[in-house]
Amino acid sequence: MAKVLLVDDDVELGDMLGEYLRHEGFEVDIAREGRSGTTKALAGGVDIAVLDVMMPGISGIEVLRRIRAQSRLPVIMLTARGDDLEKVLGLELGADDYVPKPCTPRELVARLRAILRRSFGEARPQVLSAGSLAVWPERRQAELSGKTLDLTSAEFGILETLMRNAGRVVAKAELSEQGLGRPLARFDRSIDVHISALRQKLGLLGDGRSWIQTVRGIGYQLVRE
């Protein structure tokens, strides 16, 4: 049974989501404000956190920042519908996904299960390699020139998808479906944000090119070194 930490100051919404998640087989812990939410997230024993961005005191963005300073715990952000700045900022800070509010409990459950499958899925004993870049899907581990890359769950999912298709252009819709576990929504920039983060972490090839090339109007391609 996966344990979900729900951090939201909206008591009515939090209780409703908590009840639905328990009915769907999750164990749920609820924090009503950011400080206690941070403490619970970093104390261990939690498989995934759901953070509301707009909270009094310590915001969800600040909670995410503090979590990412110490942990790779999967995180979903609850954002105001249409607030693209919050979504992009959360993704840049390492959130694995976001769900616009008001959201349906069914949508949240679907996102939770998709991320948990990526983070704790069944082992596939194989290594994917492209030059000095290697990915072990079963261990959720990636290395560049023998050094471990510190990736979020979403970044790993996208990198794994690109590695499985190294040398081939992968459409954004395919990256979203296979890498994030959800269909690509209209005007969704999350793929671009995750790609930008991956480029920073991978650095440049010996010839000065990026590991991940943009194919305008189509998608992205991982270069074979």
Total count of strands: 12
User: What is the radius of gyration computed over CA atoms, rounded to a whole number of angstroms?
Assistant: 18 Å
**End-to-end distance, in Å?**
41 Å
What is the CATH architecture descriptor of the largest domain? 3-Layer(aba) Sandwich
Number of domains: 2
Give the SSE order as H and E letters. EHEHEHEHEHEEEEHEHHEE
Structure description:
It contains 8 helices and 12 strands. Strand 11 and strand 12 form a beta hairpin. The termini are far apart. It is α/β, with parallel strands linked by helices and 225 residues long.
List the defining traits of the structure above.
2 domains, Rossmann fold, Arc Repressor Mutant, subunit A, alpha/beta, globular, 225 residues, 40% helix, 4-stranded antiparallel sheet
Indicate the topology.
Blueprint (H helix, E strand, L loop, with lengths): L2 E5 L3 H13 L3 E5 L2 H9 L5 E5 L7 H9 L6 E6 L3 H9 L4 E5 L3 H16 L7 E3 L2 E4 L4 E4 L2 E2 L4 H12 L4 E3 H9 L9 H13 L9 E4 L3 E4 L3
Parallel strand pairs: 1-2, 1-3, 3-4, 4-5
Antiparallel strand pairs: 6-7, 7-8, 8-9, 10-12, 11-12
Helix pairs in contact: 2-3, 4-8, 6-7, 6-8
Brief synopsis:
40% of the residues lie in helices and 22% in strands.
